[in-house]
Amino acid sequence: MNITIYYYSKKIIIQPKNQSPQNQSIKKIDALNKEELVKEFELFINQTESHELIFETGNLEKALDLFKKAFKYIYAAGGLIKKDNSYLFIYRLNTWDLPKGKIDMGESPEEAAIRECEEECGITGLTITKNLEPTYHMYEYKKGFALKKTYWYAMTTTHTGVLVPQLEENIEKVEWLTPSQIKETVFENSYFAILDVIKEGVQ
Is pLDDT above 50 for 23? Predict the structure, then answer.
């Protein structure tokens, strides 16, 4: 199993030792401290010709812990909601996305995922049907960078009313899209982490 962390169109992969061909350029993350990891990350994101950084580790959990210590670490949760043969998407900042948001203090990821979907889409009657793989992405945060882990859940709904986009969160519209519409529309204009969720959860 690998851990993939997205930074815009760039990808950081943390993988077990001896998984790559010997001639592939990889970094040994286990020997790095926090400051060295930050330097490696900043060097990578400033290289316009480089789109993939691979770290090799003897322990995936410890390697991820190093990322958590080196950057601001944030937890979020969201949902891939299905009704009949369609899935619920939001359109925000000129990009197709899935409803999600930060986990509040004392909240479980499942509770946060349902709350965020309700708030962002004006939807009710949600039921979690299964866990999906979490995603990781990084972005600028204050004077440094943040690493966000998002827990994802497949959901169904009994909602039959009008959907209401949360305008204060810059959500312009909320729409049900079929798998064919997702391929035609969302795949051309979404985030890489969201595409991973779609590929796993859309049947």
Answer: no
* The pLDDT of residue 26: 85
Residue spans of beta strands (DSSP E) within 38-122: 52-57, 72-83, 86-92, 95-97, 100-102
Give the residue from 162, 171, 191, 132 showing the smallest Cα distance to 6. 191
Which one-letter DSSP state was computed for residue 195?
A: H
- The residues facing 176 across adjacent strands are 88
State residue 21's pLDDT score: 57
Q: Is the pLDDT reported for residue 46 higher than 60? A: yes
Annotation: CATH topology of 72-201: Nucleoside Triphosphate Pyrophosphohydrolase (3.90.79)
Amino acid identity of residue 47, one-letter, is: Q
Sequence ranges of the chain with CATH classification 3.90.79.10: 72-201
The pTM of this model reads 0.94
CA–CA gap between residue 185 and residue 45 (Å, rounded)? 28
pLDDT in tens, 147-164: 999 999 999 999 999 999
Bridge-based pairing state of the strands 95-97 and 86-92: antiparallel
| CA-based nearest residue to 118, from 95, 91, 100 | 100
Exposed/middle/buried for residue 46 (C-beta within 10 Å: 0-12, 13-18, 19+): exposed
Look at the chain and count its residues: 203
Residue 17 pLDDT: 85
Q: Are 132 and 196 within 8 A, CB to CB? A: no
